[in-house]
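pls read this protein.

:::
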Amino acid sequence: MRIRIIDAFTDRPFSGNPAAVCLLEREWPDETWMRQVAFEMNLSETAFAHPLDDGTADYALRWFTPEVEVPLCGHATLATAHALRSDGNAPATVRFATRSGVLVAHSRDDGAITLDLPRSEITDDPEPPAGLAEALGAPIVAAFRTGALGDRLMLLSDEDTVRALRPDMSALGRVEAEHGLSGVVVTARAARADCGYDFVSRLFAPGHGIPEDPVTGSTHTALAPFWARRLGRTSLVGLQASRRSGLVRTELVGDRVLLTGHAVTVMDGQLRIPVATA
């Protein structure tokens, strides 16, 4: 079976967030097999998609980390749309049936892809999980919940603090497990107005087998409304300040968030293990 590694939210290889993409010919294979493939790839997410002909959407799409199946993944959706567009087998606009509803990806002629994702609701968290600040290694200015996304969003004092974080991953994993968190997002306003982005963020999810995610589309469904409210603009650019780094252009449209970025295929090969049927 063909499998590709595609760097998402970047226009150059070896940056952004790599996702493995498997385009299937028909219904889902055995779930254990998909989990084993994701574990073998050992990337933040491995995406599996197959075509639909029931009118609900164009493709069904699922995402797996090395440890769990997740309900929403932005960068692997962008990578899947890039793979379909590269093959010439899909129109510019593709609808994906997922656990988070029907998600739409629109590919432009310049290679940019815009994802239409559900907005995550932000609420205050007056009592952050015990031990979280210590595990992160920095004071928390304010804490927030992200609704169905399942992350905790932490506002830190400034961009330099976000960039300098070196969390205790073992301690952070314990905090996430104790409180049922999908991950911990840290964010701050950009240090300068002329740097090409409006805010910075990082995501840590050691409990899901992802110590630090390079660039996370799903968290920007929370970051977009969070910073739109503070900066007074609905169109913003976020920089995820991981080692690989990547830019995510965000636009808030009612209860939806549009995320735009590029993608680059860096590996295209064959998975030599037969597909296990369900």
Summary: The mean pLDDT is 95. The CA atoms of residues 6 and 266 lie 6 Å apart.
